[in-house]
Amino acid sequence: MIKLVDVEKYYANKFIKTWVLRNINLTIHEGDFVSIMGPSGAGKSTLLHIIGMLDDMSGGEYYFMDEPVHKLNEKKRTAFHQQYIGFVFQAYHLIDELTVYENLETPLLYKKVKTAERKSMIADMLDRFNIVAKKDLFPNQLSGGQQQLVAVARALIINPKIILADEPTGNLNSKQGLEIMEMLKQLNKEGTTIIQVTHDENKAAFGNRIIHLADGYVEKEEQHG
Q: What is the pTM of this model?
């Protein structure tokens, strides 16, 4: 589903290259639940952003469902990521000025989903995540856990092939964090491929593969379960 070949990322400043990722060779299969671990500055979020087509790589090849992403123009890449990829960030990234309902509606508007279909898809998500009572509230009226639930619901509403989660429980207490992880695990069982970045070994253990990054390299990989 995803294949990275010799992917590298660096920032060039006159004569100095600052390397973030080097020689990343990685294959991710449909249905995988991959946890990416490593210390701060290891390149975890950069790798996730490259996989999510939010960031360009400096070199190497990237194939997504056999499409050469490294050869696609920006418009094609954006269309690709809007169609297939759901994002969940540590900081929720909800739109403060919009209600829960409107936040869920936003990705459907991008995809030009018709009104009746939009309403039914949003109703399904509100129901599935037990947030029907919250639909007219704004993000700042919700707890952190509720905001992250809305963020997961928004990522899922487009029925993505893959969910990319960057420290999805980083701002949550342990009970809320566990709920989010159980939800991701359930989605994975239902067939959604998941790649998460985490520094927490307990959260990483939800994955069937753990990739350890250090100084921009893949240091080792463990298989789980």
A: 0.91
